[in-house]
Amino acid sequence: MNQPKDEQPIERQRYSPCLATIRSMYASLTEAERRVADYILSHRGWVLYLPIAEVARQSGVGLGTVARFCGKLGYSGYPDLKLALAVELLSPEYQQLNPITVTDDPQTVIRKTLQFGVQSLHDTAALLDPDALLQAALRLSNAPRVHVYATNTLSISIGLIAQLRLLTLGIHTTLFSDHAQQVTASELLRSGDIAIGLSNSGDSVPVAHALEAAQAAGATTVAITSAPQSLIAQQADICLLTASHGTMTGYNIVDADSGQTWWGDAVTSRIPMLSVIDVLYAMIALLKFRDAHPESVSRHTAG
User: Fold this and answer.
1) Would you say the C-alpha torsion 59, 65, 70, 76 has a positive or negative sign?
2) Would you call 238 helix, strand, or coil by DSSP?
3) Which helix H or strand E contains 282, and what residues bound it?
4) Average confidence (pLDDT) over 173-189
5) Where in the chain is the domain with CATH 3.40.50.10490?
6) CB atoms within 10 A of CB 12
């Protein structure tokens, strides 16, 4: 597999959700940087009032680590990160997510579960790059063949939905979940074809291998993941980024006495990934409608 590209700060919209950005970058952080991330995620409100030296002290790291952490997330410095965090915490869309506990009643379970879904959609909307979405939709709408690569139960279920969505738009799409089949099929792709890799963590080695082979064959590669510095993101021409709360928010069922958790990542990943598939479907459908009815577009533009 190719050597990963040099690690770069992610490109983000001005003051996109700070907490979601931290979560999406968490896997690519150093151990010291993760201590900074953990402190900010656990003390998000207090951080607004703390100087960089105090955040460094509380995290057990040096000032340089905090500065590098901010830069890796795409911020110009600690003040820029604090401003983004303040904008997020004061936003009407922001919700404090709390884990489901073993003593919660049905009404509380409903509220907490749906709060998570709403917040994950808001975060994904802010993290998803419109230009990347348009490029993916344009290429998919004209692709002779599309391959979807997935390996675990969650990504395979999302891949089946993606396959069905694209087929209904008249796009020849095949899902491959076996590693050997993925690599063999990817080598048959040609220029104009598309290979989509699905992995919430982005660390699926089989999917990364398949995307690399597809890219070498001349196909355009698309990654749908929550980790912009991950293996599959490094092998993608276009990366569609989702929000992932995962274990970083502790959005699990928690036993307060033992600290044991259940549930977790499958639930936290599914909603954002499905939303990206739906947005991609809507964008391709819109492009196809415009191509089929140019007079309608001209009429609305003129009006």
Assistant:
1) positive
2) strand
3) helix 265-292
4) 96
5) 127-294
6) 21
Determine the pLDDT at residue 13. 45
Report which DSSP code applies to 7: P
**Residue whose token pair is 């936290």:** 268
Closest CA to 243 of 82, 100, 116, 81: 116
12-94 has which fold?
A: Arc Repressor Mutant, subunit A (1.10.10)
Please, where in the chain does CATH 1.10.10.10 lie?
12-94
Locate the DSSP E strands across 18-133: 100-101
Cα→Cα distances 42→208, 248, 249, Å: 33, 10, 9
Higher pLDDT, 14 or 141: 141
Q: Is the dihedral of CA 276, 223, 284, 184 positive or negative?
A: negative
Q: Give residue for tokens 């490029």.
A: 135
CA dist 127 and 242 (Å) reads 7
C-alpha triplet 269, 273, 291: angle, nearest 5°: 175
Which top CATH class is 127-294? alpha beta
- In one-letter notation, the amino acid at residue 202 is G
Order the strands of the 220-225 sheet from edge to edge.
173-176, 146-149, 194-198, 220-225, 238-241
Highest mean pLDDT among 109-123, 231-245, 254-268, 284-298 belongs to: 231-245
- In three-state secondary structure terms, 14 is coil
* Termini Cα distance of the chain: 52
Indicate left, alpha or beta for 163 from its phi (over 0: left) and psi (-120 to 50: alpha). alpha
Q: What does DSSP assign to residue 170?
A: T
Burial (Cβ within 10 Å: 0-12, 13-18, ≥19) of residue 114: exposed
d(CA 110, CA 82): 32
What are the structure tokens assigned to 166, written together? Answer: 């694209």
